[in-house]
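User: These chains co-purify. Model them together.
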Amino acid sequence: MPVITFASSKGGSGKTTSALLLACEIACAKSVTLIDADPRKPITTWSKLPNKPENLTVISNESEKTILDEIEQAAARDPFVIVDLEGTASRLTSYAISQSDLVIVTMKEQQQDALAAIEIIKEIHRDMQAVRRFIPYAILFTQSKVVAKSRTARFISRQFRENPQVDTFTTEINERDAFSSIFSVGGSIRSLTPKEVNNLEAAINNVNEFTAETINKLKSNNKNEAK
Amino acid sequence: MNTERKSLNLGELEEFSPRTKVPLHPKGSSKAVDNLAAFPSRERLDDAQINIKAPNAIISQFRQLARKERYRHGEFLEVLMNAYEGKHSD
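Assistant: Joint model of the two components:
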């Protein structure tokens, strides 16, 4: 049932990588449709490489006019629908957000990404007004350093983490060799070998934690809706 | 290496299943988003124009109905065509 949308009005914020990691991980257990709504079609390109998980269907978005139907058809077919959006402030983004059960706003710990995240949060609130329901969202820090974070990175993430009005993932998607390599070799991080990439075990743990936290957010949203 | 490893507790995902009930986007939700969204359309328009000859009363009725629902004429034509096709698909 859940439609999970990855959004940021800025390119390079980690939407595609995070969306693909989550989709492949959930596909270990449940059917997932991943809608590639980025005009560069990075997920569609990845899907043509070997070792795509069987449970994962990749749909290439046609246009902003078709996105609502694409989401609806996927949601009727698979329990999980994940939408990877383009990195621009576009109406297509608004349409996808309006249909989401969780919007994951990705950002690097940088000023430009933070501004883009705020822009998306404002749009989410406008879309809530449009569809007259609460649309849960959370900030996900991506490409973060595991050790020795810069002062700027700490300053930016702290502003979001300490804001009680903004939900923020505890887990961060770290900058890892395994995450970028799946786009060149295909498959998920589980089809990689330790010989191919550094620190594979840590990368897998990172994705586990991110997936578990996402599922927990969805479950707690379900409970809140039921109340 | 770890292709057989299942990280997730499968039972945890049991409550998630495909949607079976109401349509995800009720009719008019895209229009509601259009009215409030600040993000603009980034797609190229592929608009064309036609000149419709019809009795005055029909043209007036068309304009009035479109105005009442705040549709542009092109959008309202699409609504009418969808309704027409819906009748025939029953």
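The mean pLDDT of chain B is 79.
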